[in-house]
From TrEMBL:
CDD domains: Cyp158A-like. It comes from Lentzea waywayandensis. The keyword Iron applies. One of its GO terms (molecular function) is oxidoreductase activity, acting on paired donors, with incorporation or reduction of molecular oxygen. Belongs to the cytochrome P450 family. Gene3D superfamilies: Cytochrome P450. This is Cytochrome P450. It comes from the Bacteria. PROSITE patterns: CYTOCHROME_P450 (PS00086). The keyword Oxidoreductase applies. InterPro entries: Cyt_P450 (IPR001128), Cyt_P450_B (IPR002397), Cyt_P450_CS (IPR017972), Cyt_P450_sf (IPR036396). Keywords: Heme, Iron, Metal-binding, Monooxygenase, Oxidoreductase.
Amino acid sequence: MIARSYPFGPVEGLDLHPTYAELRAEEPLARVKLPYGEEGWLLTRYDDVRLALSDPRFSLAQAAVRDTPRMGPTRIGAILTDLDPPDHTRLRRLLAHAFTVRRVEGLRATAQRVAGDLLDEMEKAGPPADLLTAFAIPLPGLMVCDLLGVPYDDRDHFQSLAEAFMSTTAMTDDEKLSKLGELAGYLAGLADQRRAHQEDDLISALVVAQEEGDRLTAEELVQLTVLLLGAGYDSTASHIVNSVHTLLTFPDQADLLRSQPELMPGAVEELLRWIPGQEIADILPRYALEDVELSGGTVRAGEPVLLAKPAANRDPRQFPDPDRFDVTRNAKGHLAFGHGPHHCIGAQLARMDVQVALTALLERFPDLRLEGDVKWRTGMAMRGPLALPVTW
């Protein structure tokens, strides 16, 4: 079988390339070739992607020792995403001691205050405004800094470091590794401070996290913090601005949320389902440890699979009329945060940030609308605009 060149090609805004729908209908197990690494299988159906996310017959740890399908010449992994159970289970359990629902919900009032302050500044400056730099980036940046215990004054510096974490081709490998090394050094110093003087933040909680006498090593703590900061900062900022763009593109849905704010939690799930957050499906290739039967055929032991979660979230077998954006839809079960052992541990924080951001924005600016053309960034793991010009 001749492998298709992947990614398939440029798309406009938050559209999905039409090839995904074609493959989902006709070739759900499609052979693809990325710019670097070996060929792999692209999964586009909901049931197949969900199974590969949770079935122990698919391994993330194998990717650390294989020539993985990827966009750049060098593979750069991360601690939680390079492990299978039981090693992954140990680290995730230790992290869960610090990343509790109580801790996240305790930040909601802070998020509401921060969102209000940012909108005050935006309103004072007057329209037009770039919603990305004025609101979508600083809100999750401030919240992640607050959660971890990173000083607010460092947020601009951390924005650039988070972009390095999420870069696929926008930076060279040397640039990316340099920025990640700088971030790791800073966080190691912060962890040393917390060992001497604990505070009410996540790094302090990670310093003391213990499970049956087992603690995080200094290196594990830094790597986990880098992962949480990078993924939680850039991906949430991207989702906030993409959500606003979507609501302004479908003003009837925005009006429905203004008139029925109780719909917001479900609307955020629908936004997570409908928006194709990931640019491509190469971030976390998994390797079959044995032959696995999927809807499109057999993946042989030792072969990698790439999971097209945005395509799976538009599978009509799971979500009727899937291309329609509907804030009243029951979108539970979407795969935006993954599924199974590697389900995003920061999902609740991201949900809370987006709920607070959209609620505050819709209440403050009932006449909010797009102002001018929107240009979209490329070479990053997450889709999103370079700027979102708005007026009111």
